[in-house]
Amino acid sequence: MRTAVVTVVHGRHDHLARQLAGLAAQTRPADDHVVVAMGDDGVAAVVGDRARVVDLPAGDRLPLAAARNAGAAAALDRGAGLLVFLDVDCIPAPVLLARYAAVAQDGVLDSGPVTYLPPAPDYDLAALPTLADPHPARPAPPDGEVWPAADHRLFWSLSFALTAATWTRLDGFCTEYAGYGGEDTDFAETAHAAGVPLRWVGGAAAFHQHHPVSRPPVEHLSDVLANGAVFARRWGWWPMQGWLEAFQERGLVRRAGEDWVAV
Q1: Are 68 and 51 in contact (CB under 8 A)?
Q2: Consecutive H or E run containing 195
Q3: Which domain holds residue 146?
Q4: pLDDT per position as a tens digit, 113-149
Q5: Of which family is this protein a member (predicted)?
Q6: Secondary structure (H, E, C), 224-257
Q7: Is the domain of 51 the same as that of 136?
Q8: Are 167 and 188 in contact (CB under 8 A)?
Q9: In this predicted model, what pLDDT tens digit does every residue of 9-18 receive, in sequence order?
Q10: Residue 141: CB atoms within 10 Å
Q11: Helix, strand, or coil here: 77?
């Protein structure tokens, strides 16, 4: 099965370079790597001849959903049978692609464990597996095991894989979303509604490079509200409840019936 990796990028050039190095060290190399540059002219210089770059204009709100769709379309045009999506911050373990490819089948959505790395001036790629400490809120099967997920809401878009047929069945990401938050939860809900189960794939590990974050992400408040409203209209409930409640505690948002609005 021809395997393609899709990465969407705006900035984070050092992170992208380390991901490219991790992909070069795969025991089962990718057949194609599509990097979608969202309003970022500097990506091509980082990538060189190691991947294909698709340029996508971007305004104030990054088109994350549309960018993933564009990357998938470019990969499918070259015959990809398996799509592996990696967040630009993620360095893949050497066997990530091999593990995803080994269990790939139509009609499922697969996700591997992700470890958040501590701050560092650089990372020793060979030593990353010794730092494995997957997120405590998500299952992390042993290498070689695949566990069915009980809750699609635990899906995240840092690292996941699905066949071309499954991608086509789900029709990609909803492009009503732009900016930060919500589009990956929507994708998982779409899979759930379509009867596509989520599975956790042991051994398909990725390592998330450190970058500063704010908790809650107050700089993305308007995106959270806009995307949350899209999600609520489509599915009948609001995602990102933890962030919304943290915003409420700070007096930044309030409830308006079943909705959330800025104060």
Answers
A1: no
A2: none
A3: 3-208
A4: 999 998 888 899 999 988 888 888 899 999 999 999 9
A5: Belongs to the glycosyltransferase 2 family.
A6: HHHHHHHHHHHHCCCCCHHHHHHHHHCCCEEEEC
A7: yes
A8: no
A9: 999 999 999 9
A10: 17
A11: helix
